[in-house]
Each structure stands twice: as C-alpha cells, then as structure tokens.
Amino acid sequence: xxxxxxxxxxxxxxxxxxxxxxxxxxxxxxxxxxxxxxxxxxxxxxxxxxxxxxxxxxxxxxxxxxxxxxxxxxxxxxxxxxxxxxxxxxxxxxxxxxxxxxxxxxxxxxxxxxxxxxxxxxxxxxxxxxxxxxxxxxxxxxxxxxxxxxxxxxxxxxxxxxxxxxxxxxxxxxxxxxxxxxxxxxxxxxxxxxxxxxxxxxxxxxxxxxxxxxxxxxxxxxxxxxxxxxxxxxxxxxxxxxxxxxxxxxxxxxxxxxxxxxxxxxxxxxxxxxxxxxxxxxxxxxxxxxxxxxxxxxxxxxxxxxxxxxxxxxxxxxxxxxxxxxxxxxxxxxxxxxxxxxxxxxxxxxxxxxxxxxxxxxxxxxxxxxxx
Length: 372
Prior knowledge:
- It is a single chain.
- Helix content is 36%, strand content 18%.
- The chain is built from 14 helices and 17 strands.
- It has helices at 34-48, 67-73, 88-95, 119-126, 145-153, 160-169, 189-202, 212-219, 236-239, 279-291, 310-321, 331-340, 354-362, 366-371; strands at residues 14-19, 25-26, 29-30, 52-56, 80-82, 102-105, 131-135, 156-158, 180-184, 205-208, 245-246, 250-254, 260-264, 273-277, 294-298, 325-329, 348-349.
- The strands form 4 sheets. A 6-stranded parallel β-sheet has the order 5-6-4-1-7-8, with helices on both faces. Strands 11-10-9-15-16-17 form a 6-stranded parallel β-sheet, with helices on both faces. Strands 13-12-14 form a 3-stranded antiparallel β-sheet, covered by helices on one side.
- Helix 7 packs parallel to helix 13 (354-362).
- It is elongated.
C-alpha cells in the first residue's frame, strides 16, 4: 500500500477521497463528528498540496442526505455540497473547481451501483479524478464500488487515518506485548465469535461484557430473564471453560417496574433485563488492567442507550490511568469516548466498527486488498 505522504507534484490534480462520514444522526443534526474530524488531516494535506478534492461517502442506508454533514464540515474547511452522486451537475461542478477547492457529493448509497457493486458506476466516479485516496477504514470491510472497484481504475493511496488504523490494530496480532488483555463487548455474538476463537489463543485474558455475557451466563445455568441472547448455539458452554475467559457474574438489571438494581447472576429473575455489569465486575477487572502491557477493547459493556453505559465509562477511566498500550474500537464505544472527551487518554481510538472486528479476525479487508 502507498500512503498519501508519497504523493508529489499534485498541484491542480483532482483527488477523489473516499471518506466515511457515516455519522450518528438525530433528525437532521449530526450527533457526533468524530469521524469527520479524523478525516481532516488528509483533506488539509491535499489542500496544502494544491489539489482539487472531491469527497465521497455514504450515510445510513442511502435515504438520508449529506447536507447536514456538509454543514458540520464547513465549520472546519470550506466545502461545496453537490446534491447528486453522478451526472451533469457533478461533472460541471468538478470542471469549475479551482486549486484548493473541496466539494462533497451526495450520499453514495442513493445510487444502487455503490453496493451492487456496479462497474459502470465505479467508472463514472473514476472519470471525475486523477487519483483515488481511501480514508474510509470503517467501511473498508465492504465490497462497495467506491472501496474495491474505483481503486482499480485510478492510481490509489491510503489516507493518514486509514494508515494509522492498520498500523495500530496490527499490534494485536503482530508480536503483541504481554500481558495482553482483550475486553470484548457489544451485542451480536456471531460477529464476535471469530475474534474470541483467534484471541483466546494469543491474548492472556479475554474479559466478556455486553449482550454476549448473557449467552455465557445462560450457558453456565444462570437465569437471564428477558435479556438479549443469541438464538443459535455457538458452543458457548465449552468455550466458557477456558481459563483465559473472564466472565463476570455481577450485573446491573432493569426490573419489570423500571428500577435499576445490581445483582449476582444467581439472583436474576425471569422479568429482569441485564443492561450492564455491576461495580464488583469493575473491581474484578482492575488488577488485569493494572498489570497489562497491551489492552485491546471492542464494543460497549452494557446497553448504553438504556442506561447501561456506567461500567464502560468506569473501566475506560481505569485504562486511561494505566501504563498499557490501549487500543479502543467499536462505533458505540467511540461515541462514549467522544462524549467523555477522552480520546487523547488512549494510545489509539479506532474509527471502525465492523471493519475493526473483521481486520482483527482476518488480518486484512477488501479495502486493503484493493490498495495492494
């Protein structure tokens, strides 16, 4: 892969930059601009080099306009929003660009060719520019046209954040430092299973939280009430016998009458909903954090949108004080870090969600192969 640091003599050149501005939205407002800010170093580098920059991204499932995103982006750089993906208006706007200009095209997923992926759509995008840059690590696990087809049609490079993602996340499987603690949360067990299978061999300890914990508690014979559990058998019972797994049994439940109560797993009733870990679980992990030299974390430890963010915040604060290399990932976890304004307290905060998981499990992604 080639980094944009290698780009020379690009004054007047048109650069197509695939960013990931798939940000959390509330109505027509951007709730968190973390991913937008992470793309700025690459954009500003290209501006200073005298390039003309075309930004392309998706948002949601393709029904939402990027106009509110453009409004937020304009707080940092001057950008012109074009409310179309391809076509006459886009071609005209590009032809009118001057050195240092930045335009943002409309939501890529409004065109079916993006996710299909369609070669003619990829060619339409590639015709707009001289060079392609991938600065969209969080979507580089997808086989979308803008990720895997456009790089075949243009000289291609990786952006600064994209390069940092690969470099830092690789620490987990390229001679990781020990003791190595992996904290794994989140809701979808099937997406975490490859991670557990891989890192149960290389990490010293795996601390389990999130909805996944419910599956482990159920496999151990505990009542989990109305809590979220998988509807498939992933061999959790056999897995839970591994001594590397840390399975906390102190949880926070939401009762049928909407009260929040900390309980031991053997006290959970049929009407309880496990939404987070309890204080004893925090004390349980504390010595592992203190002794670790590498801490990798993916996914929140509770149902944070339902009042279950407490333990995630407490453990983040413990890690921030530790001397370990700390790498944090997962979209929801990053949202909490952004809310707490703690990004600078960790060695690296990944912008990726599913891409981070896939990269950690497989060591590569379709977007990486496309830049190879």
